[in-house]
Amino acid sequence: MDPVRNPYAPGAGQRPPELAGRGRELDVFDVVLERIARGRPERSLMLTGLRGVGKTVLLNTLRSEAINHLWGSGKIEARPDQSLRRPIAAALHMAVRELAPRHRAPDRIDTFLGVLKAFAQRSAPAGRAGAAPKLRDRWQPGIDVPAATGRADSGDIEIDLVELLSDAAAVASDVGTGIAVFIDEMQDVGAEDVSALCAACHELSQLGAPLIVVGAGLPHLPAVLSAAKSYSERLFRYQRIDRLDRIAADRALCAPAEREEVEYEPKALDLLYEKSGGYPYFVQAYGKATWDHAPRSPITDADVRVAAPEAEAELAVGFFGSRFERATPAEREYMRAMATLSLVEGDAGGRDDMDAAVPTAEIARALGRKPASLSPARDALIKKGLIYSGERGTVAFTVPHFGRYLRTQPA
User: Fold this and answer.
1) How many C-beta neighbours within 10 Å does residue 335 have?
2) Are 166 and 203 in contact (CB under 8 A)?
3) Considering 2, 34, 82, 358, which has the largest number of Cβ atoms within 10 A of its Cβ?
4) Cis peptide before 298 (omega within 30 of 0)
């Protein structure tokens, strides 16, 4: 097998050669775009799921669909402790620039850019009264028009974001299209900014404005939004992005191979699904290693067995190990206890360890500690994106197979 022709692509946010098993999500988004184009009301979208299920890939694909429909689009990746003002201003700047050549009134574009500039310039933290903003906090958007006054510049992020998105939607409406803002890692948006974003989406939905937000985040993203605004449960359309079923996983492997005139034996596909669990990132990782080790077509289960240790070693370093290294000793102790208990919980519930949520009280009992004393470790792990709390009093790993990985590591 020629490694140069290897079609598989295990990468962060890298689109696989065959985007299998996501047809329903693409169809839903096409309906949203068409309904908004016809003046029908629609909700913004939120994609949720564990690490490695392809949320970023799907987000990028949806953005491509929006561009194909001649929408303006911009994308940002949220980061903890970073204000939403500057990145969302940059995303809207990009979206409106895509629409500007089709707008018949350049003055309208300039007016919006003035509002955008005013909004962005409020991004610097106030600090002490009269303190000048630090150089790294100043945004230079390359907008030649002067900043507007009295619009999206109050300093209240909720008021300003509602006004900014409403004005952006008006620009899109002028050219008979829409704007889509894509936000990756949305669970990392700060509480104040999440509240403002929900308020803005609420206002836009009431106005029927042609602007939507498409967010992607970990499974607890709905809880983050609900904590910000109680009506967020009805404000967004939530889509859970999960592992691939057997048919989709086989297609993700076989379709690219067939284009290279390579086939798999059924037993090889059986073993690959068992190893990968249907998680798209793992499907690509095992597929790539198997291709490189297989001497010829058709690929057999023996080829998979030979290649599996290499795939697992690469995952152990790049996918699991890099995350484990970010944790402090206290946090690692907490996760090891989780790993042991998640296997028990998974077996009892008829599921495997990658899906099992663990009660925090059980972790404290296993470690011989009071639950309150473990709160700092738990909160730090949540902030680092290693675990999440989907339900009150429970935690689970954000990374599939992470519990299994931890149980193989020496204490």
Assistant:
1) 24
2) yes
3) 358
4) yes
CA 112, 116, 120: angle at the middle one, nearest 5?
175
Helix (H, G, I), strand (E, B) or coil at 372: helix
**DSSP SS3 for 411:** coil
Please say if the pLDDT value at position 91 is more than 90.
Answer: yes
Residue in this structure with the two tokens 């693409």, named with its chain if needed:
26
Let me know if 317 is exposed, middle or buried by CB neighbors in 10 A (0-12, 13-18, 19+): exposed
Task: Name the one residue in this structure whose structure tokens are 């309208």.
Answer: 108
Question: Model confidence over 139-163: pLDDT tens digits?
Answer: 566 677 888 888 998 999 999 999 9
Closest CA to 262 of 5, 9, 4, 16: 5
Which tokens go with 103? 């707008």
pLDDT (average), residues 88-108? 92
- Rounded to the nearest 5 degrees, what angle is found at the Cα of 386, between the Cα atoms of 383 and 390? 80
User: CB of 62 within 8 A of CB of 182?
Assistant: yes
Give the pairing type, strands 394-397 and 387-388.
antiparallel
Q: Would you mind telling me the total number of residues written for the chain in this entry?
A: 411
The model carries a pTM of 0.88
Query: How many CB atoms neighbour CB 69 within 10 A?
Result: 17
Residue 79 predicted with pLDDT over 70: yes
Token pair, residue 149, equals 């006054």
Query: In the 8-state DSSP scheme, what is residue 132?
Result: P
Residue 290 makes CB contacts below 8 A (sequence gap 6+) with 268, 272, 299, 303, 304, 307, 308, 311
Query: Closest by alpha carbon to 401, among 309, 320, 305?
Result: 320
Q: Is 358 left (phi over 0), alpha (psi -120 to 50) or beta?
A: beta
Q: How far is CA 341 from CA 132, 380, 407, in A?
A: 51, 20, 11
What mean pLDDT, rounded, does the chain reach?
88
Question: How would you classify the pairing of strands 236-240 and 211-217?
Answer: unpaired
The DSSP code for 146 is: P
Measured distance CA(177)–CA(38) in Å, rounded: 10
